[in-house]
């Protein structure tokens, strides 16, 4: 296995993953632990229900299941195949006032994840083997009295073959949660992100490998995004991870995110400088004749091309390509100069719950160039002197206001991420983390 995310085999499709993750054996153990109470609830409800009357019996069976306790619930990874579910259930059986027996119901089921026609991942069972055996008596039966083995009655009451239907019921809740993986999540009021499974997961010794493709919607419409020149791939981790889940996000994901924000207009900024037309005229005398009154000077900046994100070892930056109209604002905005602004800003990444918080930590570089080519370099240098402090302060502040709610990472309902350790590498970001089931 040489890559984290597996491309689709079909060569004709342009769909390729830009993020995904590995659910590790440690994560499977955690999911099994938190699923145990739900499994016990489902099995108790069915097994302790009164049996349907048997028309062929002259008298109803007296055997009754009075207790159901799941002693063991485990999920084991089978590389290249899927999962094995193992459940051991202790049953308390009574067939009369003086008799209580304990029996053990064991269930082995083979599970795997498929992609259904709707494009959602779905957990299904391909094989199921239940067995029932007597464990011990808690009270002695009257050996002299004629009796029937409780196990025989219990076999009829439990209907061992029906147990496999109960296993299917156990999968209903996880499948509901799996469907939530592909739900759209808001970024800004008019921009959403959605993670679409590309294929059924792969199974390796390291865990269940899930590949996802991101789409963005602006005002309810899926927008075209830059095509990644290189399919997202990542070296296999050198050793098994103690984390429950390893999330991986490509450089292309971040570039697509900022492109979506740019297309939605979220990166357009209005910068109020500390200058006025009077103070500006002191430095640029030609401006003095343009204005009859002293007005504040404003920069209104909009993207002129798609942003670009660069990921290096331990460093993430975004390059913004803006055109700023410099003008005044009274009743209407009046522009008197057009300036191209190329801004390179350092990004800081963190995770809260299931959201990735991206913030502009600092502007590393700003290049200003006048859109009018016949203006000399002296004026360009003067504009840099006048406006760079405003750009360095206001551009990060306004972009961070847009990004402050964070971007939802791929996740399933009712689970959050904890103990997240973010590492930035060339062309991808790795986020090993643990899962935490939210308290109901």
Q: What is the H/E string?
A: EHEEEEHHHEEEEEEHEHEEEEHEEEE
Distance between the termini: 39 Å
Average pLDDT over all residues: 84
Report the β-strand fraction as a percent range: over 45%
Name the CATH homologous superfamily of the largest domain: Bactericidal permeability-increasing protein, domain 2
What is the annotated CATH architecture of the largest domain?
Super Roll
Instruction: Briefly note the structural class of the backbone.
Output: alpha+beta
DSSP strand tally? 20
Give the CATH topology of the largest domain: Bactericidal permeability-increasing protein, domain 2
Individual helix count: 7
- Cα radius of gyration in angstroms: 32 Å
Q: State the helical fraction.
A: 10-25%
Task: Count up the domains.
Answer: 2
**Major sheet attributes:** 10 strands, antiparallel
Which stretches of 5+ consecutive residues score pLDDT under 50?
1-13, 140-151
Query: In one word, what is the shape?
Result: elongated
- What is the CATH class designation of the largest domain? Alpha Beta
Domain Lipid-binding serum glycoprotein C-terminal: 239-433
Signal peptide: 1-16
Organism: Illadopsis cleaveri
Protein name: TENP protein
Task: Explain what you see.
By secondary structure, this protein is α+β, with helices and mostly antiparallel strands. The protein is 22% helix and 45% strand. It has two domains: 24-51 and 60-139 and 155-180, no CATH class; 181-425, Bactericidal permeability-increasing protein, domain 2 (Super Roll), CATH 3.15.20.10. Strands 1, 6, 7, 8, 9, 10, 11, 18, 19 and 20 form a ten-stranded antiparallel β-sheet that branches. The two termini are 39 Å apart.
């Amino acid at each position: 296995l040489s890559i984290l995310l597996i491309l689709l085999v079909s060569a004709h499709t342009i769909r390729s993953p830009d993020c995904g993750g590995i659910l590790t054996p440690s994560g499977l153990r955690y999911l099994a632990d938190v699923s145990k109470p739900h499994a016990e609830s489902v099995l108790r409800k069915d097994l302790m229900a009164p049996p349907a009357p048997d028309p062929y019996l002259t008298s109803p069976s007296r055997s009754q299941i009075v207790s159901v306790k799941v002693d063991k619930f485990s999920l084991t990874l089978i590389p290249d195949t899927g999962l094995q579910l193992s459940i051991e259930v202790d049953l308390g059986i009574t067939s009369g006032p003086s008799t209580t027996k304990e029996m053990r119901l064991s269930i082995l089921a083979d599970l795997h994840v498929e992609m259904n026609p709707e494009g959602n991942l779905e957990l299904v069972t391909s094989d199921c083997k239940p067995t029932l055996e007597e464990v011990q008596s808690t009270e002695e039966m009257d050996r002299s009295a004629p009796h029937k083995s409780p196990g025989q009655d219990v076999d009829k009451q439990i209907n061992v073959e029906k147990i496999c239907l109960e296993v299917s019921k156990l999968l209903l809740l996880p499948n509901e949660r799996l469907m939530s993986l592909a739900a759209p999540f808001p970024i800004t009021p008019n921009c959403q992100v959605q993670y679409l499974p590309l294929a059924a997961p792969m199974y390796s010794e390291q865990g269940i490998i899930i590949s996802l493709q991101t789409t963005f919607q602006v005002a309810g419409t899926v927008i075209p995004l830059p095509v990644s020149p290189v399919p997202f791939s990542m070296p296999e981790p050198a050793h098994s991870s103690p984390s429950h889940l390893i999330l991986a996000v490509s450089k292309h994901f971040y570039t697509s995110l900022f492109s979506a924000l740019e297309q939605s207009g979220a990166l357009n900024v209005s910068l109020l400088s500390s200058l006025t037309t009077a103070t500006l005229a002191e430095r640029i005398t030609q401006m003095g004749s343009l204005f009859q009154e002293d007005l504040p000077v404003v920069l209104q900046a909009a993207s002129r091309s798609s942003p670009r994100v660069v990921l290096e070892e331990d460093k993430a930056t975004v390059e913004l390509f803006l055109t700023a109209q410099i003008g005044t604002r009274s009743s209407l905005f009046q522009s008197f100069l057009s300036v191209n602004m190329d801004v390179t800003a350092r990004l800081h990444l963190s995770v809260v719950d299931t959201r990735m918080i991206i913030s502009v930590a600092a502007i590393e570089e700003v290049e200003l160039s006048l859109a009018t080519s016949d203006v000399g370099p002296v004026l360009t240098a003067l504009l840099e002197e006048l406006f760079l402090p405003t750009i360095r302060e206001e551009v990060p502040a306004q972009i961070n206001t847009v990004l402050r709610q964070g971007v939802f990472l791929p996740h399933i309902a009712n689970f959050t991420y904890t103990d997240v350790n973010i590492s930035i590498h060339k062309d991808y970001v790795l986020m090993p983390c643990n899962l935490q089931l939210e308290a109901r």
